[in-house]
Amino acid sequence: MNTLEPDAGYYDIQQKGNRDQERHLEKIKHVIKDNLKELVANENIITSDGKKRVTVPVRYLDEYRFRYDPKNEGQEGTGQGKGGSRKGDVIGQRPKEGTGRKPGDAHQEFQYLVEIDIETLAEYLFEELTLPNLDLTRKSQVVDQDEDFTDRRKKGQLSNLDKKATLKEVIKRGASNDSGISIDNHDLRFRTWRTKTKEVSNAVIFLLRDVSGSMGEAERFLTRAICFWIVWFIRKRYDRAEIVFINYDTEAFEVDEERFFQEGRGGGTKCLSALQLTQSILTERYPLELWNVYALQFSDGEDFECAEAARFLAGMIHVFNRFGYVEIEPNDSNYYLLSRLSRAYKELLKDGNRYAAVKLGQAGEVWEAIKKLMSDEVKGIGVGS
Amino acid sequence: MAGEIWDAAHALGLSPHPVHFETVPYHVLYEVAAYGLPNHYHHWTFGRNYWIQKTRYEHGEGRIYELVVNSDPAYAYILHNNNEVQKALVMAHAMGHSHVFKCNEYWKDTRKDMPGYMAAASTRFATYEQIYGFAAMEELITRGLAIQAHSRDEEHEPVVEKRPVECKTPYDELFDLDLRLGKRTLSESEKVARDKKEKVRPGSLNRLPRPTGDLLGYIIRYSPQLLDYQRDVLSVIRQEGIYFQPFSRTRLLHEGFAVWTHQKILDMLDLSQDERMEAALTHAFVTVPYPLGINPYHFGSKMLDMVEKEYGCAEVIKAASEENDSSFIRNYLNEQIVEELDIYKWVKKETASQEQWDVAEKDWRYVRDYLADYYAKPPYPGIEVYREVPNQGNLVLHQVGEEDMDEKYARETLNYCQDLWGHRVELQCRVESRSKLLWSHMTNH
User: Fold this and answer.
1) CB of A141 less than 8 A from some CB of B
2) B403 in reach of chain A (CB within 8 A)
3) Mean of the pLDDT values across residues B148-156?
4) How wide is the angle at C-alpha B330 spanned by C-alphas B329 and B333, nearest 5°?
5) Domains of chain A and any CATH numbers
6) Which of B12, B107, B124, B270 is most buried (most C-beta within 10 Å)?
7) Which residue has the higher pLDDT, B339 or B171?
8) Does A89 lie at the interface with B, CB-CB under 8 angstroms?
């Protein structure tokens, strides 16, 4: 018998676990990839502002084998009390929940909480998406924030002296001979900064939200989920993307992001006002030769001036790379009905593929909706589907 | 310290394999625990277990103090940041495990060269991986592990089964003596009765004179399509399955005896008052009773304490050498222990809004029989290779036992079996309280 003191270095060479652990994590990523649809509407993600890593639940990766039916497990067993237990004593109780671990079958309900950065998740997702009417030629010149350290000047800090360039000047002057070189002050060359300009492709996204109707928590959530991914996706494709938030009832207002999602009012609805505001902001701030324009409109489809709105939109539809109309209808009984607005907008389908529409009832449909809104081939609500 | 403990173990009457101790950093201990053996071959399921256990440790849960590998000499891994008293306790504990490995009926015939065997196998597997590719090896190991529990060491057993004679009277055996000595042959009606009883199957192949639980071994031996390297990989998985088989049957006894041993040995060592307090704390930490389960450390050691009180030390060591968990309960659990340890059977009651756990039985005989049955139940449903269908090559499996199986898992496992066997594999089993025939790559749902 003998005893060894641990030598971490020795054991590190022996490590098997890391490789198999990596392989396991790789398999988890596949599971995440296979379950993207469910993750799209994950609250952790869409309220994360896209900055941090998020934690998503992933089911325990089990290996297949012959096993007993787990339904029969955890129904009875033996245990140990603190002394003097009697038949009929209550050992424990708790309210029933959909998820969570039970004392008897912890393994069964086991879920990992896997941390993943949204960037990676978005990459998986966007493999399936195309950006309709993608136009990267609408560019503007901007002054790059990174300046280049490539220019040479005659004056500068000695620490920035470019010896090679200085020697070249000496040689040009013919001041080198067998006995050595003599460097004159005029020969000195210093490295210095040069500002660069470059071209960036631009996109502006208009988000129009009907705040009149009964837009409750669920509707807000669906709106948020769709906005989150589409904005992210457009940002990925263009160097610079700006978002304009517009809320409307009978009048339209440009608002900030927080108000955009939170605001709710009563009263009637005229989306024409939002379309008009979009047009005037475009004219004022986003010249079409420099900007790609995307818009998403969220509404329950009840509108006072449907025909006028549709006519107005038809008149300006060519400015949009994509105008997406999202009708949110969590009420089952209305789900299959065509709203007045969607019927009026249907005309837009005849005009190329600038317009796309989806109807959305629940979180499970978010991903299909995004795909429809962002595909080259467009369909209207209830048309051919 | 190690020498003192070794001597104390012998003074106590133990006869363990010599133990080689290594103090290691926690990631090494958790790695060996996840794989079951050092120098193990690769598979992602071990990586998963390693990751979960290590994460639990890093969050302050589920601390493992030691791990003892069954071999001669035994290898014991000890967490290096255990303090000196904990180390003494853990070393004494390891002596208990080592004794069970060496002397217990269910362990003594397991292979004692497993660490070396496994290290050599891992080296071969690495070579196979280079030749046949990572994916091929992973798929193969996945399939082997899926039926690893269905490995049996039946090679040394006789091919022709000797069934016990069913005796209606104490003298039945004598009446049949002529037949068994070959002086009489069976009449036709007796043959029919025998065939029915012994399930002799017309058309079964000679190589399967009777059902076998060694599904993995059967596939290795008779699959018409396995390549040599695949047979090698599967054989290693089978050997490992056989090597670990006794664990599920002797867990209570193993842990109980190891705890009992460390208590006895620590009492024999020359420790200060503070050190004794420290040891008692560590001991208390691992022997907490569970309200909805049995803590084998606590329950097992308490039972052995009572065996010692009643019959003496030698009886404890005899039990550790001869019993499995089920027989240990049946032979030693008595009214006094059930009362003192407050063991009960519970049932879960569910209403629409809540779950509740109630004490259902306290009668000591009921609790004893319930526990003995519980420990006798194999951790996996029993599966037998029943027959091969002639001219087709289909393999027919039967479930042994009455408990429901998980249908989805069974189907996927049958698909794995077909991948190895090359033909359809069928399973007659119980699903949702009914008998059901499943087969590989079934399409209906």
Assistant:
1) no
2) yes
3) 81
4) 55
5) 16-64+108-128 (no CATH), 148-194 (no CATH), 200-373 (3.40.50.410)
6) B107
7) B339
8) yes
Q: Which residues of A touch B142 (CB under 8 A)?
A: 63
Q: What contacts B152, CB < 8 A, 6 or more positions away?
A: B212, B213, B214, B217, B242
Quick check: A2 and B299 CB within 8 A?
Answer: no
- What per-residue confidence (pLDDT) applies to A173? 81
Q: Give the span between the Cα atoms of B312 and A259, in whole angstroms.
A: 79
* Rounded distance between C-alpha atoms, residue A298 and residue A281, angstroms: 19
Q: Is B432 on the interface with A (CB under 8 A)?
A: yes
Residue of B295, B269, B441 lying closest to A81 (CA atoms): B295
In Å, the largest CA–CA distance within chain B is 80
pLDDT for A10 equals 58
| Residue type at position B94 | A
DSSP H helices in B36-175: 44-58, 84-103, 114-132, 134-146, 172-175
* Residues of chain A neighbouring B150 (CB-CB closer than 8 A): 66
Q: Is residue B444 part of a domain?
A: no
B402–A contact, CB cutoff 8 A: no
B221: in domain = no
Residue A136 to residue A237: CA distance in whole angstroms: 9
> Do residue A92 and residue B350 have CB atoms under 8 angstroms apart?
no
Q: How many CB atoms lie within 10 A of CB B117?
A: 18
Residues 371-400 of chain B with CB under 8 A from chain A are 371, 374, 380-381, 383
Determine the Cα–Cα distance for residues A348 and B130; give it in Å rounded to an integer.
Answer: 60
Q: Is B311 on the interface with A (CB under 8 A)?
A: no
Tell me what the mean pLDDT of segment B170-195 comes to.
59
Q: Does A259 touch chain B (CB under 8 A)?
A: no
Encode pLDDT of B400-433 as tens digits. Answer: 988 999 999 999 999 999 999 999 999 999 999 9
Cis link prior to B38 (omega < 30° from 0)?
A: no
Answer whether A17 sits within 8 Å of B149, measured CB to CB: no
> At a CB cut-off of 8 Å and minimum separation 6, what does B63 contact?
B57, B79
- Region B385-405: mean pLDDT is 90
Cis check for the bond before A6: say yes or no (omega within 30 of 0). Answer: no
Q: Is the pLDDT of residue B191 over 70?
A: no
Q: What is this model's ipTM?
A: 0.85
pLDDT tens across A196-237, in order?
777 888 889 999 998 876 567 777 788 888 888 888 888 888
Pick from A107-111, B329-333, B427-431: least confident: A107-111
Average pLDDT for residues B71-93, to the nearest whole number? 91
Number of domains composing chain B: 1
B74 neighbors B16 (Cβ within 8 angstroms) = yes
Please give the angle made by the CA atoms of A192, A143 and A118, to the nearest 5 degrees: 110
Q: Which spans in B287-324 are helix H?
A: 296-311, 313-322
Q: Assign A197 to helix, strand or coil.
A: strand
Whether residue B311 is contained in a domain is answered as: yes
Q: Could you list the residue range(s) of the whole structural domain that residue B323 is in? A: 2-107+250-341
| CA nearest to B74, candidates B2, B4, B17 | B17
With respect to residue B178, please indicate whether it lies within any of the assigned structural domains. no
Q: Report d(CA B37, CA B49) in Å as an integer.
A: 13
> Which residue on chain B is closest to A9 by alpha carbon?
B25
In single-letter form, the type of residue at position B297 comes to Y
User: What integer best gives the mean pLDDT of chain B?
Assistant: 87
* First-last CA distance in chain A: 76
pLDDT at B213: 92
Q: Which of B53, B36, B43 is nearest to B247 (CA)?
A: B36
Residue A221: name the closest of A361, A317, A349 by CA.
Answer: A361
> What's the helix, strand, coil split of chain B in %, to 5?
55, 15, 30
* pLDDT for residue A146: 65
